[in-house]
Amino acid sequence: MRTMTTAQPGAGSRSALARGDRLVLGFLGFSIAAAFTVELYFLLNFQDIHVQTGSFARLFEIYGAGDRTYYGEGDVHLPYALETINVFAMQILNCLLGYAIVRHRSWRHPLQLLIGTYLAGSVVLYFWHAHVAGYPDMPDHRLWNYFIFYAPNLPWLVGNAWLAAVSYRYFVRRESATTDRSV
C-alpha cells in the first residue's frame, strides 16, 4: 500500500493525501476519539467504576469478564498507568503525527515508527503480563472471557503495528534507494 504523497517531505505542500495517509489519519482519529471518551472515563472513574451506571460503566462491566481491573476490582495500577500514558502523552503525539502527515513533514516517519512501536508494544506487554501471571484478573477462565480480553484490544495492537510497519518499510525503501544510487 502506498503511503507517501508526491510532495517532498518538509515542503509544507497541501497536495492531496495518498490513500495510505488517509487510512493512517482515520486510525489516528479513531484512537484519539477512544482515548478521550472510553479511556478517559476509565481514568476518571477507575476507583468506583463498578458502582457507576452509565453506558461506559456497562462496557467496562462487560470487559471485566476478561480483566476485572478495568472494572475497578483488584490491582488497577497497571491498566491505570498504561491508560494514563496513552491518554495524556500518546494523544499529543498522535496529533503531532496527524499534523506531520497533512503538512508532509520530514519527521513524520520517525514519529510514526515511535508511536506505532510503543503502542503495539504496550498492548503486547499487557497481554503478556496477564498470560505469564495465569490471567489472575479474569474471574472465570472460559472461552468468552478470553475473547472479551483479547478482541477489544486488537485494533490497538494491529493498527499500531501497521503504523510501525508502514514507517519501517518507508525507511527500508529509502535506504535501498540510497544504496542503489551509490553502487
Folded structure, characterized:
With 183 residues, the protein is mainly alpha-helical. The chain has one domain. Helix content is 68%, strand content 0%. It is built from six helices and no strands. The chain has helices at residues 19-45, 55-63, 77-102, 108-132, 143-150, 154-182. The chain starts with 18 loop residues before the first helix and ends with a helix.
Keyword list:
183 residues, mainly alpha, elongated, disordered N terminus
Catalogue the unreliable spans.
1-7
| CA-CA gap between termini | 27 Å
- What overall form do the CA principal axes indicate? elongated
Strand count: 0
Proportion of beta-strand residues: under 5%
How would you sum up this structure in a few lines?
The protein has 183 residues and is mainly α. Helix content is 68%, strand content 0%.
Layout of helices and strands:
Layout: H1 19-45, H2 55-63, H3 77-102, H4 108-132, H5 143-150, H6 154-182
Helix pairs in contact: 1-3, 3-4, 4-6
